[in-house]
Amino acid sequence: MAESPTPTADSDSRVRTCHPADTVREYLERGWWQPETLPELFQHRVDAAPDAPAVTDPANLADLTGARPRTLSWRELDEHSIDLAALLYRNGIRQGDTVAVLLPNSVALTATYFALWRLGAVATPMPASYRRHELSGIVDAAEATAIITVDAMSGRQLASEALTVECTVFAFGASVPEGAIALDDPVDAADRERLSDYARALKISVNDRVTICWTSGTEAAPKGIPRCHGDWLAMAWGVQDGLHLTAESVLLNPFPMVNMAGFAASLLPWLLTGGHLVQHHPLDLPVFLGQIARHRVTHTSMPPALLTMLLHNEQLRASVDLSSLRRVGSGGAPLPPSVVRGWQERLGIEVLNFFGSNEGVCLMGAPVDFPDPDTRARYLPRYGAPGVRWATRLAESTRVKLVDVVTGATVTEVGGAGELRLAGPAVFGGYLPGTATAEPFDEDGFLCSGDVFELCGPDGRYLRFVDRIKEIIIRGGMNIAPAEIEGLLADAPGVADVAVIGYPDPVLGEKCCAFVVPAPGATVTLHDLVEHLRAREVASFKLPERLEIVESLPRNPVGKLLRRELRATLLDDRP
């Protein structure tokens, strides 16, 4: 841990931690947590390669915010972060303060995080698409003292919207409205000296809160998820063990840097190893593919639907240069085995299968553990399985069990299914008070994930995702997992994207409806889908009984399906 003289009382008294002291001590003694903090690791990167490219703006930033895209070296990013921290300090931001961050993926967002962490402040980020309703709710729940945003984005006046919320507003941009503090204002030597004096006096622990992220809110009001230096970096190392980033890697980040997808799959592995982080926002396929070619990107992430579309669209692939790509992470929905195999055998690019949550651990299907792409698409590692060693160090420190959702018994037989429960150094310490109504841990201290998995493979060494507990469709007393049917239909001819939703039935309780986005020029019928499933010998009660053709499926900023919106359309259509 970073040890230094005790800071002034006005900052020290507001520091909040995430885990009990004995837990922190155990994690450090076992080597499951490292003593370095995020600012210390950032300084290591600056010292190691000060003139190497560190971060690049989205290519379309001028269209988004009016700002000119730029690339900063590690030294330049450090200096930008120092200036931001000095300006924030001048305007009252101190250790323990929580600051709401409403910015697109950019150099500015990256520098803002490190500026806040230099001060010992807490970032509570949110998607740039959030408006006053979401912003005011999060500011209140997190007791945020300030908001950092941009003057305008995509025709919206973000800084003006933020000024309607009761707290200090900071904004980037050339047209910062009256009442907000411009983050492009210059700082002088005296500002930097005051910041330096303050920072030297800070006492920072790896257990100090650094972020409050938020559940996606796809089905209910979002819950606050505090995380500290230690558990974020334990998560990051777990992901890095599969990504294999180096100081020469170029990482393209398409997911908003507001929660697990952006932090654990991009920002933090990049911080651990160095390299070049290329930001992207919002997901725009021509821009995304252009960035891969221009920057010679080696690693990125893609949702399964995009992997499928690119594999099947040879004309589009032929128009861009993907030859630099080595590894692509994917998750959030079942991965079609034929797609994972196609990327590996036809394109020479390995797809990693990720499954994680803001609260818990990232389960990672890495090529070294799952050389066969079909197996990698279908299964995830069961960390802690007896006699099995996995590529990620998280496997050695994470305890996993499946619990029958009806009986509460621990599932031990291959083929059995139950709720995934987790404990270990990458699991969060509990929800932000006031944002959750139920305790997320069981009596043994395991996080109750709400996700149902099946025990599979030799000796139960694999886990197969079934579905979220609350998404299970009950048809005449029989349980149907939408994710299972979606995974099978993703390989059906003519299907570009698919979702399966339950809808009310007066006799059976619920039936299945398939929402399908057809591939360009394709026609999909309910008969086609049913016959595709019958050919795979799927039980008859699982077959969809209704088909809705749509142009796209509603998803949140990190690609998670918004089932409630699809369900609402079915309810609206009732006679």
TrEMBL record:
Keywords: Ligase. Gene3D superfamilies: 3.30.300.30, N-terminal domain of ligase-like. InterPro entries: AMP-bd_C (IPR025110), AMP-bd_C_sf (IPR045851), AMP-dep_synth/lig_dom (IPR000873), ANL_N_sf (IPR042099), ATP-dep_AMP-bd_enzyme (IPR050237). Residues 42-432 form the AMP-dependent synthetase/ligase domain. It comes from the Bacteria. It holds the Pfam family AMP-binding. Residues 484-560 form the AMP-binding enzyme C-terminal domain. It comes from Nocardia tenerifensis. SUPFAM superfamilies: Acetyl-CoA synthetase-like. One of its GO terms (molecular function) is acid-thiol ligase activity. This is Acyl-CoA synthetase (AMP-forming)/AMP-acid ligase II.
